[in-house]
Design a protein that fits this description.
The chain is built from 14 helices and 8 strands. It has 391 residues and is of the alpha/beta class. The protein has one domain: Rossmann fold (3-Layer(aba) Sandwich). The strands form 2 sheets. Strands 4-1-5-6-7-8 form a 6-stranded parallel beta sheet, sandwiched between helices. Strands 2-3 form a two-stranded antiparallel sheet. Helix 4 packs across helix 11.
């Protein structure tokens, strides 16, 4: 770290498919080792990305959860009106229920930490639009990175039918702006921010990053700078929508619904990072881009690993720094759910932490001595979940 009072923040946006609900507002999970007085001061005073306020009472949290449940229920019925009755999505919904049941022991533990840990600051308001609030994916990542003294902000965006793709990209960009402009108040370094997204979150955050780079290189007014992002981590992302329309249709996300989310067929190329990276308008923006690291499992049937392979190749041809890491036999959710819930050694997690701490010898030494991550779910349940996974 460049200053002892700064910690590197990670912005995370995570979703499995575009229409699934995503993580809520900004999420703070941080823990600090006992040691210097400065570190103890940070433990007492830091609350990520929100000015210090009194934690909401449990009653208010319950009321908030009830209101969100009502909102999501209404949106779900609206979504059903788009989907109609179809064999593919009904069978996948049934598989999803079984999948969640097998992983429930882990979800309950993570949920308890999320709602009751003093290191988590919930329901931070940013932007001027309501968002779906679902934090499970970001909570698991945040709690585990927090153990390595990394601040995590989990950004939410409106999901279909509450919003379409341009709304989603705008929401993510507003969230990144909030982080860049406020993180210094809570022990973070505004020039050492890392952007991470999984699945739809990887796609949307890549769109936001590339669009911001084009705007910045053109001299347009901006509220955050791409230069503040040290690296982009994309997990199991889809980066060329033109190639994915038929693939998603075959898996139950029907073409008509997908095109409604993406604002029509003509908009597909405008929200495809791979195509944006080939456009002449990106030429002047390439020097602004951070290091791209793309992760993908070779047994990912939700979004084929070729999406990351071709996007990494396209970025390199455009002159950007891009790295591709493939995990043999890993599925769409192995990297982000089953492996973290399994505990112990996790190659992807270790890579991300080492990358973030690469210029901090003290942090690297501490990482080398860190205890193995604990298991959340018995192995038998993880294997069963993998067998029934709709992803």
């Amino acid at each position: 770290m460049e200053a002892t009072t700064s910690l590197p923040p990670v912005i995370s946006s995570n979703n499995l498919v575009e229409q699934d609900p995503g993580s809520d507002s900004l999420f703070r999970a941080s823990s600090f080792p006992s040691g210097s007085s400065d570190q103890r001061w940070r433990r007492r005073t830091s609350s990520l990305l929100a000015r210090p306020t009194r934690q909401k009472s449990f009653g208010r949290e319950v009321g908030h959860a009830a209101a969100e449940t009502y909102l999501i229920t209404g949106l779900s019925f609206k979504l059903l009106s788009y989907l109609g009755v179809g064999y593919r999505w009904i069978t996948r919904l049934f598989s999803l229920v079984l999948y969640a049941m097998f992983l429930l022991p882990g979800f309950l533990q993570v949920g308890f930490c999320y709602f009751f840990s003093s290191h988590v600051h919930r329901s931070i308001v940013y932007g001027d639009r309501p968002r779906n609030r679902y934090k499970a994916w970001g909570s698991l990542l945040g709690l585990q990175l927090a153990e390595r003294d990394i601040i995590v902000a989990s950004i939410d965006y409106r999901n279909f039918p509450q919003g379409t793709i341009s709304d989603m990209v705008d929401d993510i960009s507003q969230g990144i702006s909030y982080v860049c402009n406020n993180v210094v108040e809570f022990g973070g370094d505004p020039n050492k921010i890392y952007l991470m997204g999984q699945s739809a979150g990887a796609h949307i955050s890549a769109c936001a990053l590339l669009q911001q780079a084009v705007k910045e290189s053109s001299g347009d007014g901006i509220s955050w700078s791409v230069s503040q992002i040290r690296a982009y981590f994309g997990l199991s992302g889809g980066y060329n929508l033109l190639k994915l329309v038929d693939h998603f249709h075959g898996r139950g996300l029907y073409r008509s619904v997908f095109l409604s989310i993406m604002e029509g067929e003509k908009s597909l190329k405008h929200f495809s990072p791979e195509i944006i990276a080939q456009s002449p308008g990106l030429h002047n923006a390439v020097p602004l881009l951070p290091h791209f690291v793309l992760f993908h499992g070779t047994s990912d049937y939700s979004i084929p690993s070729n999406e990351s392979i071709t996007f990494a190749d396209t970025l390199r041809k455009a002159g950007a720094r891009a790295e591709l890491i493939l995990y043999n036999g890993k599925t769409h959710t192995d990297l982000f759910l089953q492996d973290p819930l399994r505990g112990g050694k996790d190659e992807l997690f270790d890579y991300v932490v080492t990358f973030i701490h690469s210029d901090d010898k003290e942090a690297l030494a501490s990482d080398a001595m860190a205890s193995p991550r604990r298991r959340f779910v018995p192995e038998i349940l993880l294997r069963l979940a993998r067998e029934v996974s709709p992803f």
